[in-house]
Design brief:
Elements lengths: L3 H15 L7 E7 L3 H13 L4 E7 L1 H10 L2 H5 L7 H9 L3 E6 L11 H14 L1 H8 L5 E5 L3 H7 L5 H15 L7 H22 L3 E5 L5 E6 L6 E2 L1 E3 L5 E3 L7 E3 L1 E11 L4 E3 L2 E11 L2 E9 L1 H7 L9 E6 L5 H5 L6 H4 L5 E5 L14 H6 L8 E5 L6 E5 L5 E6 L2 E2 L2
Parallel strand pairs: 1-2, 1-3, 3-4
Antiparallel strand pairs: 5-6, 5-18, 6-11, 7-10, 8-9, 10-15, 11-13, 12-13, 13-14, 15-16, 16-17, 18-19, 19-20
Helix pairs in contact: 1-2, 1-10, 8-9
Bound molecules: zinc ion (2 copies).
The site of one zinc ion has 4 residues, from β17.
């Protein structure tokens, strides 16, 4: 369990390092109803550092499940304007910063009709499009943090009773979030500096391709978007104010070229999406597109993800993380992208971030496409960084620069 002081430090990290809320700004906390105590702590910290107003956009995963089991597919696909579009319009107009608390129960939709789940997800993504555009382009500053819930902790530590599982997960998250440091905000500043040094190395080399291989069958060449930019930890909002979108974050990432991906990649960790677990899968690409895929666990769910639209069949992100990151070291599989994606190198099906190409926010959709940037309503990360993965960068002259050996950075 964390002490009250550590909880306050955690809330402060979300406000000051994560969203980097500025004095006089409005804040929106997005979270499940189970997180109300931590949400209130964040709200108090936000006011302590000068927030103008704090709003909360509640989600309720138990109600999500009740709806999924009882409503018909047409009603599930109608997203009333009042529930999302109108709120998003206000948030964008008033340039709020967003703090999401991610706590999804990996099994919340277990046993629900996969067609309904996929259709409702597409409808929700469409209704939520404006906010996602505003955050993905850094028009609004945003961050995601995470805390244990009983359902989630019980899935992560199935042998413990729910109370103990929650305690154990708090311990893991406390270490991962550097809340055991004397000054967590300072510890985060140092960590961010290391990530930025590596990102600068990758940017200086301007690789044409990244090549990954391992013993489980991965042999994948990922072309990088023309004029791509590697980004780590802190990004800059369109207003010039830095922020850290994911906390924790260990990744350095950029945009693949969506016509230059070839070979096969095998997953390293299960992919948890919408309450479904997909595992032991492999994906084969040719000229940037998925041409074949297999999955021993959750094939239908994988098929559902890959049916969202045309763009989901290519990649929008490649991210590098060493196996010695505190999350990977913890050895805990969280069944939650925020943690698991930071435990392992990953790729993402679907949209790329406009910020991962030079002047991306000023480019037209046509110009983005020419650079190999991918567009889709989806963005789904999946983990590929095994402990034995070797990764090289290959520049435009064909020079090969080793980046990873046996799962860890060597630069
Ligand atoms: Zn990522
Ligand atoms: Zn991602």
């Amino acid at each position: 369990m964390l002490t009250q002081k550590q909880m306050e430090n955690f809330a402060e990290l979300a406000v000051r390092v994560g969203a980097n809320m500025q004095k006089g700004q409005e804040v929106v906390i997005r979270c499940d109803v189970q997180c109300k105590d931590f949400a209130h702590l964040i709200a108090e910290k936000a006011y302590e550092f000068g927030a103008k107003r704090v709003h909360i956009q509640w989600r309720d995963e138990v109600l999500d499940r009740i709806n999924m089991l009882n409503a018909d597919i047409d009603s599930l696909c109608e997203v009333p304007d009042i529930s999302l579009r109108a709120q998003n319009k206000y948030f964008i107009k008033n340039k709020v910063c967003l703090i999401a608390i991610s706590t999804e129960d990996p099994n919340k939709l277990k046993g629900c009709d996969p067609d309904k789940v996929a259709a409702a997800e597409v409808a929700r993504l469409k209704a939520d499009k404006d906010r996602r555009q505003a955050t993905m382009s850094n028009y609004l500053r945003w961050t995601i943090v995470s805390i244990p819930t009983r359902a989630w902790a019980s899935q992560v530590f199935p042998d413990l009773d729910p109370e103990q599982a929650v305690d154990k997960m708090w311990d893991a998250i406390g270490h991962i979030m550097r809340l055991d440091a004397d000054n967590p905000t300072e510890a985060w500043r140092q960590h961010i500096a290391t990530l930025h040094r590596r990102a600068a190395f990758l940017n200086a080399h301007n690789f044409e391709y990244i090549h990954m291989t391992n013993k489980s069958g991965t042999d994948l060449t990922v072309g990088l978007a023309t004029d791509h930019v590697w980004i780590a930890a802190e990004e800059e909002g369109q207003d010039g104010v830095p922020f850290t979108a994911n906390m924790p974050t260990e990744e350095i990432f950029t945009a693949p070229h969506n016509r230059k991906i070839n070979g096969t990649v095998v997953n390293a960790l299960p992919l948890v999406n919408n309450g479904n677990v997909i595992d032991n899968f492999s994906i084969t690409f040719k000229d940037g597109k998925v041409v074949d895929y297999k999955a021993e666990v959750g094939y239908d769910a994988l098929k559902g993800i890959l049916s969202a639209d045309e763009g989901v069949l290519s990649l929008g992100e490649i991210a590098l993380i060493g196996k010695n990151s505190p999350i990977a070291e913890s050895g805990v599989l969280f069944f939650n992208t925020l943690f698991d994606e930071n435990a392992s190198c990953h790729l993402a099906f679907g949209a790329s971030y406009p910020t991962t190409v030079k002047d991306g926010n000023a480019l037209t959709p046509k110009q983005l496409k020419e650079r190999g940037m991918n567009s889709s309503i989806q963005h789904v990360d999946f983990m590929v960084g095994t402990k034995d993965i070797d990764i090289d960068g290959i520049d435009y002259d064909g020079n090969v620069v080793p980046l990873f050996r046996d799962g860890e950075w060597i630069i």
